[in-house]
Amino acid sequence: MDTDELYYMATDLLKSLIATPSVSRDETAAANIIEETMRKLGFEPRRHINNVWAVAPGYDVSLPTILLNSHIDTVKPVEGWTRDPYLPAEDPQTERLYGLGSNDAGASLVSLIGAFAYMGRRPREYNLVMLASAQEEVSGRDGMEAVVTMLPHIDMAIVGEPTGMRPAIAEKGLMVIDAEARGVAGHAARDEGVNAIYKAMDAICRLRSLKLEKVSDMLGPVKMTVTQIEAGTQHNVVPDTCRFVIDVRTTDVYSNEETLEIMRRELPGCTLTPRSTRLNPSSISRMHPVVRRLEMLGFEPFGSPTLSDQALMPWPSVKCGPGDSARSHTPDEYILLPEIRSAIAVYTRVLDGLKL
User: Fold this and answer.
1) Domains 3-171+281-351 and 173-274 fall in the same CATH topology
2) Quick count: other Cβ atoms within 10 Å of Cβ 88?
3) Are 173 and 278 in contact (CB under 8 A)?
């Protein structure tokens, strides 16, 4: 397929995906479209739940393997849409294509499929795998996590998300921690009991001033934010329990487990229970060949505060794709059609002749 054919294939595919509701955990119809598309392109797709992947012909176990990945699921439409979120609509004057998931991350997905279709049959010194994953928007266990062990050995991944094609070479991780301070109940009218709210306040003040020693060059410091608090049964009872929630955005200089251990040392009067430690921060060297090629094409590396399937990948990865993160999860979401054409060209230029 030539570049025009790849572009029209990609935009037609994106319109089909926009017209197919695929909210996280309900992506079956979209997965069917991706599976059918892969077959039409001459590949042999595999599927687990609603994750679909294909290995380019000529797989050689002695060669390194690159994974191309983006997701097929969307968030639910937010309030404020002025058009049908499931009706793909082009504006010829602005060259916008409107529709839910157009920017996040449908444009990345179809552009990567276009690059895969082009590079899949060209001479390469590496193996190439394309994966359309499910449940990315909710970090669900039936998405990326479910297929990591089913894929061939992967040496690095290019993850499609709206970054304006700038390579995100570091990405923050996430922990949500349920914290609990314990006191002793008593009557509020008498000098008795140990107020758990005051103990929690001391811990929260400590969190506000806590600065971890190492700071990421790309992501800055680890960020810890108390977002919810709950205590007390009635006005005249000194509460014996105060619970609060801490949103922790980790960086590539600490793992989630390391960050949690530091917090436990610094807050000895509280019980800290993470809901999960699986959404880890990630990073890749600025000198990696893929990053170097993107930089030579004029795209400046940066650190990303937003999560993606990178958090569940055990191999190095770089995040880059068409679109703008500021358009994601917003009313009247759109992608500029020239962004798709450009993304296919950039992906193929990065991959063509690449040596790992």
Assistant:
1) no
2) 20
3) no
The answer to whether residues 315 and 151 touch, using CB atoms and an 8 Å cutoff, is no
Architecture, CATH, for domain 173-274: 2-Layer Sandwich (3.30)
Buried b (16+ CB within 10 A) or exposed e, 42-78: ebebbbebbbbbbbbeeeeeeeebbbbbbbbbbeebe
Give the pLDDT confidence of 16-46 residue by residue, as tens digits: 999 999 999 999 999 999 999 999 999 999 9
pLDDT tens track for 214-224: 999 999 999 99
Helix (H) or strand (E) holding 66: strand 65-71
Residue 277 exposed, middle or buried by CB count within 10 Å (0-12, 13-18, 19+): middle
Two tokens, residue 146:
């479910």
Angle between helices 3-18 and 107-119 (to 10 degrees): 140
**Do 102 and 89 touch, CB atoms closer than 8 A?**
no
Q: Where are the domains of the chain?
A: 3-171+281-351, 173-274
User: pTM of this prediction?
Assistant: 0.92
CA atoms of 265 and 281, how far apart (whole Å): 21
List of long-range contacts for 200-208, beta carbons under 8 Å, 24+ apart: 200/229, 200/231, 200/242, 200/244, 200/270, 202/269, 203/179, 203/267, 203/269, 203/270, 204/229, 204/244, 206/266, 206/267, 207/246, 207/263, 207/267
CATH code, residues 3-171+281-351: 3.40.630.10
Q: Tell me the H-state helices in the chain.
A: 3-18, 28-40, 107-119, 144-147, 196-209, 256-266, 289-296, 337-351
Q: Token pair for residue 123?
A: 């001479």
Q: Which residues contact 258 (CB under 8 A, 6 or more apart)?
A: none
286 φ, ψ (degrees, to nearest 5):
-65, -20
C-beta neighbour count of 163 within 10 angstroms? 23
Return d(Cα 325, Cα 161) in angstroms, integer: 8
Local structure of 30: helix, strand or coil = helix
